[in-house]
What we know:
Elements: H1 3-26, E1 31-34, E2 38-42, E3 56-60, E4 74-75, H2 81-91, E5 97-101, H3 109-117, E6 120-122, E7 126-148, E8 156-162, H4 171-176, E9 182-184, H5 187-190, H6 200-218, E10 222-244, E11 250-257, H7 258-262, E12 271-272, E13 279-280, E14 282-285, E15 291-293, E16 298-299, E17 306-307, E18 312-314, E19 321-323, E20 327-329, E21 336-338, E22 343-344, E23 351-352, E24 357-358, E25 361-362, H8 363-366, E26 369-370, H9 376-384, E27 392-398, E28 402-409, E29 412-419, E30 425-432, E31 439-440, H10 443-450
Parallel strand pairs: 3-4, 5-10, 6-14
Antiparallel strand pairs: 1-2, 2-3, 5-9, 7-8, 7-10, 10-11, 12-13, 14-15, 16-17, 18-19, 20-21, 22-23, 24-25, 26-27, 27-28, 28-29, 29-30, 30-31
Helix pairs in contact: 1-2
The site of zinc ion (ZN) has 8 residues, from strand 25 and helix 8.
Amino acid sequence: MTTSQLTSTAVDAQATRSFTLWALRTIGLRVEPEGEHVFRFLAPEDRRESLNGAGTVRFTFVEPAGVGKPGAIEYVTPAARMFQWLLDQLKTSRQPTLAVPVADVTGVEQLAERLFAAYSLEGGAAVRLGGCDLEPRSLLRLSFRLGAVDDTRTPRLRHLNFLHDGTLLDDESVTQLRLDDLAPAGPELLADQRGLPERFDEWLDACQAAARESLRAEFPDRSAELLATCRVLCNHAAGTLLFDCGGQAIEVPFEGWALPLAHGQQLPPPLTCPATGRQSYHVAATCDGRVTVREALETCGESGKTGLPDQFETCEATGTRALREFLSTCPVSDGRVLTSRLVACPTCRQRVSPGAVSHGHCQACRALQPISKDDPRLAQIFGEYPKLDRWSHWKLSETSSAYVLSAAAWGRRLLVVLQKDSLEVRHLAAAGRWSAAWSEVPLSQRAELLR
Ligand SMILES: [Zn+2]
């Protein structure tokens, strides 16, 4: 036997098994397994005659050689006596019949855990179900017996399953939706009109035509006899997952057939980071309490904390990317620099970017320009510190936050650094006229020079 024959035999046995078990359940018989490959049902008394008087019928879908007691067990193929008996019984039942996959998801709680498992969570990020509805949707299963023209081969059985829009389901979807194991729908579903296509008869006709066309293409040398039409209700899920880390939640809507969602064969969508637009199943929280994806996170070169790019700046002195709180604005260059990298200018003592200092002076100290005593800035400063008016040879430079001033008189020089907005003294130093070294004026002596 070749591999393809073996596969074909397995497919045929599976199709026959699926049909037989469903049909027995549909005509109201209770099927019980008896060992691995054998099933049995108790024949109702009024139907025993057509079963040659048998009370309990044992049957299998595996060729008798593999079963053990071939005589007592009916080997079911589409050509078997029992199969024909079953078709006769079905003819008296309502068509199309309504069925559900035995394994279908029936409660939202069967979904939640698997949906959550699609994501990895870190940094305090959490996920919960925002809401989820299960709604039955209709599929149509058409079961055909494929006859052989020359009559020497066993007839074959094929099921074709269609979506409500007439699309033929592929094998993978049939497996995922467990359509090979159906049970008759309960009375509550029979009364439920949800999931019933609006133009039911048209749907039926279109699916039958499509099925016959598909079978003609696949089995050109066989005739196709429609044995049963079954509407199958499968639960479809639609809901929202909510991700948060204690604050506002991000919604991730999902939808799909409940069964593949519950078994991880279909994943809910990845989370989209609202700040960066990046998508991922790795959900993370930032240090400032926002939900994002791990791929969007940056690590702070100063603290090792993680955050989103909009929380980061680049240090102009080192090129390091760090959280904004670890950077300061250099008052002379206006550039952003890691606070830990600022250096004090040896002259004016302002903390500035290392690149702003050379030969003992910052850019502000090097840029001192002579200024007239009539300059309104000086006039304002003299108003605050009247004794400064006694000095002459004023020079001034400005940074974003300070005035740096120098003056000379009586063979001495004076350096004054004032906070621009408040005129508060930030540094006061004196030097001899010809000395390059400034000496800071102690706090106790400042008043003497200023007021
Ligand atoms: Zn300076």
